[in-house]
Specification:
Elements lengths: L12 E2 L4 E3 L2 E8 L7 E12 L3 E7 L24 E5 L5 E5 L4 E4 L6 E4 L2 E7 L5 E4 L13 E4 L4 H4 L2 H6 L7 E2 L2 E6 L2 E7 L5 E4 L5 E2 L3 E2 L7 E6 L5 E6 L3 H12 L13 E2 L7 H13 L6 E4 L20 H9 L4 E6 L3 E2 L5 H9 L13 E3 L2 E4 L6 H15 L6 E3 L30 H16 L7 E3 L2 E2 L7 E3 L7 H16 L5 E2 L1 E2 L8 H11 L6 E2 L15 H16 L1 H14 L4 E2 L20 E3 L3 E3 L9 E6 L4 E3 L4 E3 L3 E6 L7 E4 L3 E5 L12 E6 L9 E7 L13 E10 L2 E11 L6 E6 L5 E4 L2 E2 L3 E7 L2 E9 L1
Parallel strand pairs: 13-29, 21-22, 21-33, 22-23, 23-27, 27-28, 28-30, 30-31, 32-33, 43-47, 46-48
Antiparallel strand pairs: 1-9, 2-3, 3-4, 4-5, 5-20, 6-7, 7-8, 9-10, 10-19, 11-14, 12-16, 14-15, 15-20, 16-19, 17-18, 24-26, 25-26, 34-35, 35-36, 36-41, 37-40, 38-39, 38-41, 42-43, 44-45, 45-46, 47-51, 48-49, 50-51
Helix pairs in contact: 7-8, 10-11
């Protein structure tokens, strides 16, 4: 696979005429086979119109008889009139999306909408200078993606790229393939998704370089290109019109992210090198000693017996069930790694059983395909087969029954080490490698989650994966792979996670502190302050590198790390409710600023890649450059409470904020009611019925503050049976007085046991449900700062 070479549009023949009959069209292109006579290729096009302004174009030919994608897309109901738009396709195969006023919102390139080059295909659309592009799945190419040429092919980055590129450059492609692009045209948003599991590519650039040495002398072509090196062309068009509406439509299409267990939203500690019960006991005790709340202790490959999957090394885990139970009595979860590779060793049960059942991938000679990864000679389950997924599920179920409550899938790109992966065939050797490569991890995740569901049918599963494909968020969270302990990766992690979230994978995050190389105290502080509210929060590092546990740094650094880990736990009820909204309607969790606010010439929010929103109410503006002592912070159009400065600020302005080793620029939007846990110190328990509500209004506020706080047990599926409560809170300011109304609108989990209000304003009187309350003015420690607040019990 060539990562820096792309099909050239000059080699494509474009369809210029198509005959339509209803929603089906037919066309022909030349079909030349080397050594044979020129012929023609028949092409059949089908269009599908759905409700909610969603459209699909499918192209079939002898090269593309079926769609091999397993993304399990959930389309809206078919509709003759989609909604706000209409898709037109002419007899010359020109594509135009128009609004109700016939204004063109999206138009194909003139006489070059769809092209064919053998088994390759591409779509082209007009592109304008003012267009902005986002999404594109997992990319280290920045937040705004104009001027890019990118490919989709899941890689093992450190194995597939030279280390200088992997460590300091912009390796592309990465581990997760979601060929989806967002077009921002003014304040209108359109999404284009290729539902094709083969190697796909996109271009948002006019320029073409020759060996990265000079620009090619070619006529600029202002087009957006979406193409594939193989596989049936399936193009899906989604119309917003706003970015939130577009994101929710995409998420419903690819699959809503199931509500995870609350412990998965905690802090997690991992290192390649944790291998024994002694390591776990040490970590458990140290977390308690240094008052670091932590939900998960993670094991990398060293815990296994010779890297054999589904085993524990008896030298380090003599009684695995009892060993795991010992740690988990503290409430922390033990999370081991599960790689797909199976050591090719007769006598090893997993290998022998898989061989007997015929579940491993074949090579062109009909034998087991053999790669070289951690166990040495390694075979790979063929997850394209239902029998293989059933087989794998059985082993995961048995593994879970030993006390394991979650695992993480690595090397599932799939990584085959130094062995050429094109010889790794699927569907019992009948399907070429590229038809399933990008889907391998997602199908493995599906089988893994099913094993936990069978072992613990009443407990929500949690799985983390390095690789994935469109729709993978239905089964797994994603960590953004093997990063490096430097500021280049810290900065890149923000845009990478934001675009991945906009591409239908909201549960994601990088390894905090960096995986490869030696971190520094300053980098560790800055990374934790930037990432402590990312949906997934894990500290992970490579073997033989500097230790990254919080207590392995100086006292001041450890204090900062502890402060922000504890702050994550205080804010976990807020994060949990963001996941509830994602599970119910596809609302984004991590968001760029222009998701919630309009970008203007004065404040170009669509170009700001070092600030972001966590849900609709919390904004972060971290320091992510090593030598930066002061930074610009853009305050969008709202009033903001600066937690780092304990003061109210007006929006629609830029401010200067100085670097502070112990605090980070953190802002809450006026009108917020943030639910916070009562956890203190090392406490990592989840008690959703014990909560305080931080009300961000002051005497000058002219808007209400309101929230619907949803709470349940945080672990079971009981909420699906109605075992969930919802408390609505609304607060309004009138003549220096604050009036608060609360209503328990659902009581399936009972009322709040402990509740209080923390108000960020000085009021003459506070009433709750019409009753005057006792006001207590008291500083409240929050976000590393004493906040002048009013506290009210109710």
């Amino acid at each position: 696979m060539y990562f820096k070479k792309y099909p050239n549009a000059a080699n494509f023949e474009f369809v210029h005429h198509i005959e339509w009959s209803g929603n089906r069209g037919s066309a022909t292109v030349n079909d030349f086979i080397a050594g044979g006579e020129p012929g023609v290729k028949n092409i059949r096009v089908t269009r599908y119109d759905y409700a909610e302004d969603v459209y699909r174009l499918t192209v079939e030919s002898q090269d593309w008889p079926k769609n091999y994608a397993r993304s399990e897309l959930a389309f809206p109901e078919p509709a003759e009139q989609s909604g706000l738009t209409e898709l037109e396709i002419s007899e010359s195969f020109e594509i135009a999306l128009r609004d109700r006023n016939k204004k063109i919102l999206l138009k194909s390139a003139p006489l070059a909408a769809f092209g064919v080059c053998g088994g390759r295909s591409l779509f082209q659309f007009e592109r304008f200078p003012e267009d902005r592009f986002y999404g594109m799945g997992e990319k280290m190419l920045g937040l705004e993606l104009s001027g890019k040429f990118t490919k989709y092919w899941n890689t093992d980055v450190w194995s597939d790229f030279d280390l200088p590129v992997a460590h300091e450059g912009h390796p592309d492609p990465l581990y997760v393939s979601v060929p989806y692009v967002i077009i921002k045209r003014g304040e209108t948003y359109i999404g284009l998704l290729m539902d094709n599991p083969c190697a796909t590519f996109m271009s948002t650039t006019d320029s073409v370089s020759i060996a990265d040495q000079m620009e090619a002398d070619v006529k600029p072509r202002s087009v957006l290109t979406l193409g594939a090196e193989n596989g049936q062309p399936n193009l899906i068009i989604l119309y917003g019109p706003s970015l939130p509406e577009l994101t929710r439509k995409l998420q419903r299409l690819v699959g809503l992210t199931p509500l995870p267990p609350a412990w998965a939203l905690g802090y997690h500690q991992c290192r390649w090198g944790y291998q024994s019960m002694d390591c776990l006991r040490y970590l458990d005790a140290a977390m308690n000693r240094y008052e670091i709340p932590c939900d998960g202790l993670w094991l990398d490959i060293e815990y296994m017996r010779g890297y054999r999957v589904f085993t524990f090394d008896p030298q380090y885990f003599p009684e695995p069930e009892k060993n795991v139970e010992e740690i988990q009595k503290s409430g922390r979860r033990v999370v081991p790694i599960l790689d797909p590779g199976v050591k090719a060793e007769p006598g090893y049960e997993v290998y022998d059983d898989g061989n007997e059942k015929g579940v491993f991938c074949k090579n062109p000679q009909g034998r087991n395909f053999t790669g070289l990864v951690w166990p040495g000679l390694t075979v790979f389950p063929d997850f394209s087969l239902e029998k293989t997924k059933t087989w794998w599920t059985g082993y995961v179920k048995h593994f879970a029954e030993r006390g394991i409550t979650a695992v993480w899938n690595d090397m599932n790109d799939p990584s085959t080490g130094s062995v050429l992966n094109t010889d790794m065939l699927f569907n019992e050797g009948r399907d070429a490698h590229d038809l399933f490569h990008n889907q391998y991890a997602s199908e493995m995740a599906k089988a893994t989650v099913e094993g936990f569901r069978q072992a613990r049918p009443e407990e929500r599963p949690f799985l983390l994966s390095r690789s994935g494909f469109t729709g993978c968020s239905k089964y797994t969270a994603i960590w953004t792979g093997d990063n490096v302990s430097n500021y280049h990766y810290l900065r890149a992690s923000l845009a990478c996670s934001l675009n991945l979230a906009l591409s239908g994978v909201p549960f994601n995050g990088p390894d905090i502190g960096g995986f490869g190389g030696d971190t520094t105290p300053q980098l560790m502080r800055d990374w934790m302050k930037a990432g402590f509210l990312f949906p997934f929060c894990r500290n992970h590092s490579i073997i033989n590198s500097r230790a990254q546990e919080p207590w392995m740094f100086d006292q001041s650094t450890m204090a900062v790390l502890r402060e922000y880990i504890q702050l994550r736990y205080r804010l976990r009820p807020y994060l949990y409710n963001l996941f509830v909204a994602q599970a119910e309607c596809g609302e984004a969790i991590l968001r760029p600023l222009f998701y919630d606010f309009v970008s203007t010439d004065e404040l170009p929010l669509d170009r700001i890649d070092d600030q972001f929103m966590v849900g609709p109410w919390v904004m972060q503006a971290p320091f992510i450059d090593e030598k930066l002592e002061c930074r610009d912070v853009v305050l969008p159009d709202a009033r903001w409470y600066a937690l780092n400065a304990a003061q109210w600020l007006n929006g629609k302005q830029r401010i200067q904020v100085e670097q502070d080793q112990s605090r980070t620029p953190l802002y809450v939007r006026e009108g917020a009611v943030l639910p916070l846990a009562l956890n203190q110190g090392r406490d990592f328990s989840f008690s959703a019925a014990d909560v305080e509500f931080h009300v961000f209004l002051n005497r000058d506020s002219t808007i209400p503050a309101e929230t619907s706080y949803v709470f349940d047990d945080g672990i079971s599926f009981g909420y699906q049976r109605g075992e969930r409560s919802e408390l609505q809170i609304k607060a309004e300011v009138n003549a220096g007085r604050l009036r608060v109304q609360t209503e328990l609108v659902r009581d399936g989990y009972g009322p709040c046991r402990t509740a209080r209000l923390v108000i960020y304003g000085d009021f003459e009187q506070v009433t709750v449900n019409g009753q005057a309350t006792t006001i207590q003015a008291a500083p409240v420690r929050f976000a590393g700062q004493d906040q002048p607040c009013t506290v009210v019990q109710f």
